[in-house]
Here is the input.
Amino acid sequence: MSDQAILVTGAAGFVGFHVARRLLAEGRTVMGVDNLNAYYEPALKQARLDILRGEQGFTFERVDLADRASMAALFAQHRFSKVIHLAAQAGVRYSIDHPHAYADANLEGFVNVLEGCRHHGCGHLIYASSSSVYGANTKLPFSVADRADHPVSLYAATKKANELMAHSYSHLYRIPTTGLRFFTVYGPWGRPDMAIFLFTKAIMAGTPIKLFNHGKMQRDFTYVDDVTRGILRLIDHVPEGGGEGNGAPARIYNIGNNRPEDLMHVVAVLEKTLCREAIKEMLPMQPGDVLATYADIDDLKRDVDFRPQTSIEDGIREFVTWYRDHYKI
Here is the structure.
């Protein structure tokens, strides 16, 4: 493998798949890593992976991030020029009942990625954080300058921990790191545990959709192609020391649509796109959930001219087209 290979962790996952695909389309060499766990249907991960395997310049290793020896060997063998770390144990609600899965993947796994970057000359680590780190914040839009030390779920706490861990490695070892706080990413090949996927499946099947806080919620839904475009612009935008962060070459950005959508509006768009009415089950607020998310993306606009281009209407139409095709409905 070329010494200019880019490592994409979570390559069989939703965002990882799209990022790897875009990199390959640009003619870059990509190694994908994933443990293909059963958090959601492995068949969907395998289908994404099958597409990537058909692309020139792609290789794949099935590795668990928490396996320290395997990760050390991977980095030693390939000496990746850049690392895009998107693998994680995702999901706010799952973290309430499965805390150890988050400690293994998001904490131990992340240390193994950082150690690989430290010892084998990685020129830039881009890693996934989450809008969940804003937790109990009520000031909108969320800015990276806001304090983010009141997480309301263990998932959020692990993502905030990742930002602190990355900063310490940037400070100690001068590893350039860029953290991305993702805001509700959706689109084709999406995750089955997320709202738009869950709602589409239920509406098509004629089963109820669950609307927490009686549907009175807002989310900054971000279309996956916009996210992918932002990540690719950041790959060669390597942070330098100085200024913020006590001189460490570390940056954190929000990557969102910069426009919160009312959940009931999203349901209405889905109903119109699917030509079916949803059966709505109104429920109280859930533990670990927040009322609204809204990304301030001024920093990302300024630094790499990031401008989301996809409306919720267009994004949902693209998702539904993919969903009908993939599940032959």
Summary: The chain has a mean pLDDT of 94. The radius of gyration is 19 Å. The first strand starts at residue 6 and ends at 9.
